[in-house]
Amino acid sequence: MTTAKAADTTIFTRRESEARSYCRSFPTVFTKASGAIMTDVQGREYIDFLAGCSSLNYGHNDPDMKSALIDHISRDGIAHGLDMYTDTKAAFLEAFENLILRPRGMDYKVMMTGPTGTNAVEAAIKLARKVTGRRNIVAFTNAFHGMTMGSLALTGNTAKREGAGGGSLADVTHMPFENAMGDNNTLEYIEWVLENPSSGMDDPAAFIVEPVQGEGGLNAASAEWLQGVERLARKHGALFIIDDIQSGIGRTGPYFSTEGMGLNPDMITQAKSFSGMGLPFAALLIRPDHDIWKPAEHNGTFRGNTHAFVTARVALEKFWSDDAFQKETLRKAKYLEDRLTEISAQIPGSALKGRGMMRGIDVGSGELASDICARCFEAGLIIETSGAHDEVVKVLAPLTIPDAVFAKGLNILESAVSAATGNNQIAAE
Amino acid sequence: MTTAKAADTTIFTRRESEARSYCRSFPTVFTKASGAIMTDVQGREYIDFLAGCSSLNYGHNDPDMKSALIDHISRDGIAHGLDMYTDTKAAFLEAFENLILRPRGMDYKVMMTGPTGTNAVEAAIKLARKVTGRRNIVAFTNAFHGMTMGSLALTGNTAKREGAGGGSLADVTHMPFENAMGDNNTLEYIEWVLENPSSGMDDPAAFIVEPVQGEGGLNAASAEWLQGVERLARKHGALFIIDDIQSGIGRTGPYFSTEGMGLNPDMITQAKSFSGMGLPFAALLIRPDHDIWKPAEHNGTFRGNTHAFVTARVALEKFWSDDAFQKETLRKAKYLEDRLTEISAQIPGSALKGRGMMRGIDVGSGELASDICARCFEAGLIIETSGAHDEVVKVLAPLTIPDAVFAKGLNILESAVSAATGNNQIAAE
Amino acid sequence: MTTAKAADTTIFTRRESEARSYCRSFPTVFTKASGAIMTDVQGREYIDFLAGCSSLNYGHNDPDMKSALIDHISRDGIAHGLDMYTDTKAAFLEAFENLILRPRGMDYKVMMTGPTGTNAVEAAIKLARKVTGRRNIVAFTNAFHGMTMGSLALTGNTAKREGAGGGSLADVTHMPFENAMGDNNTLEYIEWVLENPSSGMDDPAAFIVEPVQGEGGLNAASAEWLQGVERLARKHGALFIIDDIQSGIGRTGPYFSTEGMGLNPDMITQAKSFSGMGLPFAALLIRPDHDIWKPAEHNGTFRGNTHAFVTARVALEKFWSDDAFQKETLRKAKYLEDRLTEISAQIPGSALKGRGMMRGIDVGSGELASDICARCFEAGLIIETSGAHDEVVKVLAPLTIPDAVFAKGLNILESAVSAATGNNQIAAE
Amino acid sequence: MTTAKAADTTIFTRRESEARSYCRSFPTVFTKASGAIMTDVQGREYIDFLAGCSSLNYGHNDPDMKSALIDHISRDGIAHGLDMYTDTKAAFLEAFENLILRPRGMDYKVMMTGPTGTNAVEAAIKLARKVTGRRNIVAFTNAFHGMTMGSLALTGNTAKREGAGGGSLADVTHMPFENAMGDNNTLEYIEWVLENPSSGMDDPAAFIVEPVQGEGGLNAASAEWLQGVERLARKHGALFIIDDIQSGIGRTGPYFSTEGMGLNPDMITQAKSFSGMGLPFAALLIRPDHDIWKPAEHNGTFRGNTHAFVTARVALEKFWSDDAFQKETLRKAKYLEDRLTEISAQIPGSALKGRGMMRGIDVGSGELASDICARCFEAGLIIETSGAHDEVVKVLAPLTIPDAVFAKGLNILESAVSAATGNNQIAAE
């Protein structure tokens, strides 16, 4: 930190659990945020290339969402109503039906799960088991689906799995994600295991897949591979579940990251940017024929965060009434790709990862990635790593980021890469 | 419904999953709420004796919380900051330290888990397993700890457990709660199982217990029994975890439902009314020596809901700076007890359940309980059942409910009981 | 050992695994055995009150079985035929049908499992799960059903369970055996758990019970209690499985230990004395309607030990063609009871355990029991302990033991008890 | 059957469980057997190419074993002694030490498990978990390790796994066996999964592998692949367990099927031909430093079948005192390979499988394999199939089979193949 006086963080070290994490990478105290800028207690501004891990696709504190939420609170709109019917839930569901489902020819029931991604995932695997009468779920290497026991069993990361303290993480088979082992699509292997009656793999209830693995290192699956997974699922009587929590809601361009791929998932999870404003909110989209839940069979106190209904509706109306936002995202994604391609060229052996506005550079080691991110933070850019070895520097800017701010942030990244790799001539540009 | 025109609920039946539940008991559309009153789309007002299942202990839309939250939003305060340091989190932690922990001589680290009760429970059992190197968790009959797979394994309810669709609910031993089988404290049985080296019970990592079981039927444990459970846990090298999600935060009078009982839990879960205003928020309180989490070992996108930090801090400052609120709650609890005792007298074989402002009547059957609640709703009172057979009519009014409104709500309940049981002479009073 | 030259046991300590056990209590090398007498390498004779843990109910090397087996081997009778049809298997099955099933009005299919008790138990629980579509098995405190993972999950003993090294021992609920906690029949508790829809107990596929728990301390269940267990099983759609491995085949008098109790088990396990001569042999008796196995769905190399078919047939014909043997056993059992009652009177706080010729004395501590057994061995009697704390000195003499030998063995026991407890005046008798 | 009067098998269909299997393929009643010949009740002789699934490597009723066993029985040698020290056990252990371990420079403790292969496997995985403190075991596709729950979890076959009736088959990861998916050694894949910290695979306690998969289709692993598996196990802190139950004890030539491969397994299982005469007998060989069992931590009534000690000792002394038997086996194996190569040439797309005297032909379909075996039986040859689809006709002749009988059996097989495939010109030879 170059600031004269470091922010006082003693209350956190004294009272907050050792489990805290991001705060360790960004050792200051933030006080406000707007659009793509976060401001700390000393008034220093940071460009946000983390965006709540894709929870802030529309940026911080969108003025229209703020205004609608303040209005809602001011008029004593429901803040908490369990899962009772409310006007705001109705308005949200209507917007979701009219702006998202209908235009895409999709027919799904919306299950308001607890307002966290992991809760939507847990609901999905429970329902898949109920629907099929089978127990085994296929998840993929490098997958991240959450930290509660059901989702953790699906998660690939060893360090995360050890958090279970030895509790059973059963009923899951992990399969290699596309290109996980180099230049192959892995479908052949998966098919061989499924078709071999002596493979030791029990019949799957479902396949659950992230179209772009976020925590796993920005691994983007191709349409062909995802189609192959769906085809194998159908052939073997299993459901096909898309976990679009980090990759969806515009992050790769379209609302769902798999639009145009010819897929027909049985369930789709929604969270992170689902509320529009970063409020806790999650849902499970379910093909109507699979919606065999009994009332309250999966319940929860905070399912259907009412404040989130308000902001989520605004987000849908503001950004998804036509295709302008999606086009704008794809335009920025092209710019991002070009810049990252240049930056990546500085790092021998590096590789561009991801898709749309969910991109990053595999810099080859967690040490280098961490060094780059630390230099960026010094220079006013919030950016993080992902991947099995934390080896990917990932850019998850708000989709609404102004071009100039985006460029400025990428310039900081470029300079940090130069400095970290010793290519100072480039850093001088 | 006696209203001229029923609220339009077609969007919900068309688009919301069959898992929805409370809305089925209260078939109208709510639009606003304040204090103890909810108002529907036709302007009809209902007294709220459900209070978000104890998530609204301070009532709906407390004006001071509203004002602080609006101010926070207006000034672009952080809405979502992952688990970065923010001024609002600092202010919340300081208030929690100064107003809750210090005055009670308690020393706990605060783990911001995903903002749902089940996430706090999952974190607790994962950590207990890590700390002890054991897998088995002791939970109690009629326990309810959540719907994600780890918490669901702890939960007693068969219908809820069947939601797992056959997924493994392992590593848990269920023991009888106090008086579960009639007039005995059950500690003797539990001790016998623990001490018998051939009982088939594997050494426990922890005991997790709700001091007053909410969903399980308002079963209130005595101080002696809870002390006994803690003593057995200590003797057998297990942690002692209090799940105070529904019973805590003033519901039984003091902030923690176990204050004054001489207990020293290793962990305490917090959720429901923790944010003060019904916003999603949860935490796990951990004795510092047990806080062995590695950074991010249990993480989550929404841990530390920033809006909730704002309202939770206001709640602490407003209601817990002195003992006035607690005294007021105990006063109301006495009134509630008196009224429920009278009402219970109408129902042969019924029994008063619960403690503090978490009370109810076991009316003997789910059918009668359901009939009573339906009659209440017709008359403008929102009230629900709990218990293994949904046989308990429970009163979970906001603690801030004005005396007159409280009386009016109880009058409605009394009349409904009379009508349902045919004691019309009483109903006529 | 008082013998001049101890037997050479170095080969065992050098080459046999530390898991070896009985040899540690009886540190000599045995060379031959006949009836109730074992002889060691120095020619010393020992009365055998262990009888292969009830595997030698007819004594060692019964001359008729020997002769039939020698004849079979001499004529190149099949020694190993997998599960092919053989004349000896046919003869055995016919004898079992004619002498055991028909006279008792029982109709069971015989499943030749691997020739160990644990294999029969594993087959039983697998089949119960297949038949009911449920996973949970109810086993009892102090139960012992075997060491393979499925049976071990049923077993109560902690030291044995720790042998699993942390492998999952799931899908089992342990319930208290009759009088396990003192003077109650425990059925009330079991029923309460089953009937309480919030007990956390998943619907059981089966109850498996030993009528007299052998390893668990010679706990003999009453007819009333076993009827109660069967009634609860039926009421809740679960199968009722009798594990008669140690208690059956005449040990308590009748062939099955539950004869005359009005029970109708769905399955019965057979092993230990099933071959008559101590050869490995086991079977699962299955009510025909439950015999839904597909061919080879549970197979094994040694199922149907052909040598055992030969000796088992002889045993059936010799001992079960009429009721003489059963009557003789009951006569000896009465004598045993009288003698043990007297011996028990020497030990304050001791209690008589078991039933029939499966009796013992709970002497109050493992130390005392161990001391008594060591003194017995010095005096020429092989006798062992059982129970959760190894606190029961158990008498499992061959049922064929001559009266004089039986009396002599009991005299040794009586003296050992006197010496161990310091009651020398009694020892002098 | 071409016999005038079929054998009476009604007792079996009336009383033996539907689980019975081999008897369905060989619908006659056998009465005696000697060497490589089995004789049925009508006096018809069959050449035995099944040999108890490799349990009769020395043929039926070896005269020296018979004689020693008859002598033992005649002199009242111990038939059942639990795991007490006996002269016969000592003699067996000394022979095993002197003839097997010492000449091969091997140092192992011998654990007498229950006398079935599955019990030895269960002991191995329990011990591996105890030694490493880890739970996960790596087993391979097409593996067969037994039918009890622990071994069944390791087994690849779906039909067998379904026998568990839904009981948990947890704590196992299945990996592809060498060439399982065609022309690759699969080590690269296994290594990638182990080294990827986000693969979702938990650290393994052990790898367990059959050097030649018997039930899985006679898949023979190369020395290089097995070395690779051991290397990966060592690198990742896991034990390396060889399951040599079907492949060992001379079946591929040397006593252990992996001799000369430069392997150093932590444990080796022994069963099937271990007793020499087909009697139930099994053991687990344990590297001394891993022998951390507590006394009786894994016990069993029939561990150490005393009759088997007698015959097993004779087998060791007769066949393993020098290398003559091994050489003779390899000579026969060469002849077998030549003949099967010729026979295989008749079947388009067929492939030779296995190693040593554990060979077979993958004929491409279970239907054809079954047809061939049925024709062989008609012609007086007992032969069976294996493989995931029962597509391999396997030759498991006694190693002691006389050349002329071996040739005659192979002639029958050749004719049956010709007839089944319509190549009558060859059948006419």
UniProtKB/TrEMBL annotation, chains A, B, C, D:
**Gene3D superfamilies in the cross-refs:** Aspartate Aminotransferase, domain 1 (3.90.1150.10), Type I PLP-dependent aspartate aminotransferase-like (Major domain) (3.40.640.10)
Question: In this entry, which stretches build a coiled coil?
Answer: none
> What's the EC number here?
2.6.1.76
Kindly list the cofactors needed: pyridoxal 5'-phosphate
UniProt keywords (A-Z) are: Aminotransferase, Pyridoxal phosphate, Transferase
**Could you give a single Gene Ontology term from the biological process aspect?**
ectoine biosynthetic process
Pathway listed for it is: Amine and polyamine biosynthesis; ectoine biosynthesis; L-ectoine from L-aspartate 4-semialdehyde: step 1/3
Spell out the protein name for this chain: Diaminobutyrate--2-oxoglutarate transaminase
Q: Which family does it belong to?
A: Belongs to the class-III pyridoxal-phosphate-dependent aminotransferase family.
Q: Which GO terms describe its molecular function?
A: diaminobutyrate-2-oxoglutarate transaminase activity; diaminobutyrate-pyruvate transaminase activity; pyridoxal phosphate binding
